[in-house]
Amino acid sequence: MTEPTPVLSVRGLSVRFLMPGGRRVAAVTDVHFDVAPGECLALIGESGCGKSVLASALLGLLPANAQSAGEARLGDLDLISADERTLSRKVRGRLIGLVPQSPAAHLTPVRTIRSQTEETVAALAGIRGRAAVRDAARAAAERAAFPAGHLDRHPHELSGGLAQRAATALALVGDAPLLLADEPTTGLDRDLVDRTVDELRRHVDTADGTGRGLLMITHDLAAAERIADRVAVMYAGRIVELADAASFFGSPGPRHPYGRGLLRALPDRAFTPIPGLPPELGALPEGCAFAPRCDRATDACAALPPVTGGVACHHPVPGSDVRAAEDVHA
Amino acid sequence: MTCDAPAAQSAVWRSYGIRRRSTRTVRVRVSAALVALTVLAVLLVPPLAQLDQQAVDLAAKLQPPSRSHPFGTDDLGRDLLLRCVYGLRVSLLVGLVAALVAAVVGTAVGAAAGALGGWVDRAVMRVVDTLSSVPHLLLGIFVVALFRPGVVPVAVSVASTHWLSTARIVRAEVLSLRSRPFIDAAVSGGASRRRIAVRHLLPAVAPQAALAAVLMVPHAMWHESALSFLGLGLPTHMASLGNLVQGARSSLLAGHWWPTLFPGLFIIVPTLAIAGLAGAWRERISPRRRSELML
Amino acid sequence: MLELRAVTAGYDPKAPVVRNASLAVAPGEAVGLLGPSGCGKSTLARVAALLHRPDSGTLLLDGTPVRRWRHRAPREQRTAVGVVFQQPRLSADPRLRLTDLIAEPLRATGRREEAPGRVAELAAAVGLTPDLLGRRPHEVSDGQLQRACLARALVLRPRWLVCDEMTAMLDASTTAALVAVVEEYRAATGAGLLAVGHDHTLLRRWCDRTAHWEDVTGGTP
């Protein structure tokens, strides 16, 4: 398999927060991953595991008390060391399109969808002239399957699904090579989740084959299963497993005990929770952060597990262990 | 792909927004220093002063700032620095008393209107609207005119016009809190109406009300100065900042700038300092700050 | 029996969000109410928890019709229904530590002395550590806060539980953990449950039976 040049290439990315009293919170630690063109990588994990911080770091939207290390290459540009001017003029909208968590809150409440789309088209696509802008805005809305008849509505007059499409339309205007979707399905119904996710998928699989990359951050495993090519499981600020989506959700299943635990908790599977709570990011244990909740933990877990074959675990479930795979579906 | 490179243990940490932080710190420190200076001056200068602020020295009238009189003297030869400090003392006293009264009355009325709702709310808020539609100064003048000039009538006048805004802020806050699920949860947990008001609503509006009160102190000082400037506030022999500016008007036309400038600065500088501190406080209590660690 | 009969409710009498909804939960039964978002099922849940006065229709609690609502309702009726909301951030008083949050209903009903024991017992059941109990809501994650909110709903040992999209904001593991806590409580006390949500898979797995919004409202939009 020939690897195309990745759209986004994250190497050793860490983010920490300096809290009052000199406390340090390691929100993201030593994260490595790639997103290839035409690929969807789903970043999954519990709330508070550092997913959103990772997204903010990529967009350069970290608060003042944050520090970051490592790099995230998007083409020739390192997003982590880029200055605010570069980020606002070249990156946001143009290189990364953001599909927000709550689209209704993301859109300006006092302006119509048309005026917001036109403004975005004029700013990002550089289209001049009233008629041209108007046409381009209509085309942009059409691309995200937003009905032209609803363009003159205000955000509060739209249903959740339409607001999501409007926000997606804005994210697509700049023709960014990378789409970043931060919990795009929170609070939506199952049917609407499926539709939203399918539409996002459609924007990744463009006909001309160049393809965008999509990084979707979510805690909704069903949505991730529906859309993702690959899955990155995040736990306590680290990516503990990076796997092919088909093998992660299907057979042989996740290899990291945490990923297995997450799937076992689904109501259509075993519906049993992982015991215990995730650790505090401000007081992480020395070794494997999952060890206290892990039924496979041994003395070896007192040391930080190295990443081997995409899994950071001392005793991963063997990839071909059929018995364990059945256990997941029990 | 080279994912297997070990983590750079000596990671280079980059920070964000250092500059923004430091200007905020500077702003807060300068404001705090000025407020402290104001309080110290008001408390310490009168007992320590060698000169009598009322001491008239016609031989030294309208002298520009010099070593013996850093702020110069007024048209009766009184030391302006001392007069200003005494004026600030009176103005600050009026401001504090008025702000306290206004905050307590405004919070009580606003919280009652918001919590009880229905016709009580409508009636109270119509009264507030009606009173707000009268210009503050006019209403203030009307109240002062009912009494003999003095500190108490001025404080009452200022308070009677300023509780309205606090009442509105508190009512709006209570209304938005009342529909929150946490109030529903308290109701469902068997809490009485009184307990909900005292344990859940009042503590939630207290920071807003206190902030409104602090911001009202400079406002009340200005109001007092305006009343005194119009000759309706404090008796003219009493040094208040408004009286000082008023008295200096004629000398300004003669080219003597100091009797106007220094009392003016005494009105403006503490105002800005208090507003600066209150602004920093508002940033602290605003919910935006709570999401600083976006997890 | 927790019975809603022909309930019409909303915020504007001219355009009610709930029209003519009827639903009954037997003691010990778990009923899931499924409906799309924005259909008014949360409003119906609030009616069932005595938190919203319906425009018309009746709520029968163990055979007694409810005549007064919110804080005007008799305390025994109000506290017979425990309620958990969708967003833990909004349903927790931001100034209370988690211990006080859980103990608040006991204090409000004059059973202060029971608080330490009951809080410790519930904290263990929902999986909150003593360290977390000493924190305020902004210092814990959504999942941890929802655990505390569930403990608060159970602290008065209600005969009925209303869970309004309790797990919509939570990850799979926390969802499974909270559902397990509810089921343990119901097994021990025989309490009835009305779980409102939009996740078919979850509610079918969780509840004895599920009802669709269209069926509950008799097909009227």
Could you please describe the fold and organization of this structure?
The complex is a heterotrimer of chains A (330), B (295) and C (221). By secondary structure, chain A is α/β, with parallel strands linked by helices. Helix content of chain A is 32%, strand content 22%. In chain A, the strands form three sheets. A six-stranded mixed β-sheet of chain A has the order 6-7-8-3-9-10, sandwiched between helices. A four-stranded antiparallel β-sheet of chain A has the order 2-1-4-5, with helices on one face. By secondary structure, chain B is mainly alpha-helical. Chain B has one domain: MetI-like (MetI-like fold, Orthogonal Bundle). In chain B, helix 2 (80-116) packs antiparallel against helix 3, helix 2 (80-116) runs antiparallel to helix 7 (193-229) and helix 7 packs parallel to helix 8. Helix content of chain C is 39%, strand content 22%. In chain C, the strands form two sheets. In chain C, strands 6-7-8-3-9 form a five-stranded parallel β-sheet, sandwiched between helices. In chain C, a hairpin with an 8-residue loop joins strand 1 (2-9) and strand 2 (18-25). Classes of the chains: A alpha/beta (330), B mainly alpha (295), C alpha/beta (221). Chains in contact: A-B, A-C, B-C. Chain A binds chain B through residues 3, 6, 11-12, 14, 16-17, 19, 25, 27, 30, 32, 34, 47-48, 50, 52-53, 56, 62-70, 80-81, 281, 307, and chain B through 1, 3-5, 7-8, 11-18, 20-21, 292-295. Strand 4 of chain A pairs antiparallel with strand 1 (14-15) of chain B.
Q: Using the alpha-carbon principal axes, give the shape of chain B.
A: globular
CATH topology of chain C: Rossmann fold
Count of discrete domains of chain C: 1
According to CATH, what is the class of chain B? Mainly Alpha
Question: Largest beta sheet of chain B, briefly?
Answer: none
Largest chain-chain contact?
A: A-C, 30 and 31 residues
User: CATH superfamily of chain B, called what?
Assistant: MetI-like
Low-confidence stretches of chain B: 1-9, 287-295
CATH superfamily of chain C: P-loop containing nucleotide triphosphate hydrolases
Strand order of the largest sheet of chain C: 6-7-8-3-9
Inertia-based shape of chain C: globular
Task: Report on the biggest sheet of chain C.
Answer: 5 strands, parallel
CATH architecture descriptor of chain C: 3-Layer(aba) Sandwich
Helix-strand topology string of chain C: EEEHEEHEHHHHHEHEHEH
Rg of chain B computed from alpha carbons, rounded to a whole number of angstroms: 25 Å
N-to-C series of helices and strands of chain B: EHHHHHHHHHH
Helix content of chain C: 25-40%
Q: What is the total number of structural domains of chain B?
A: 1
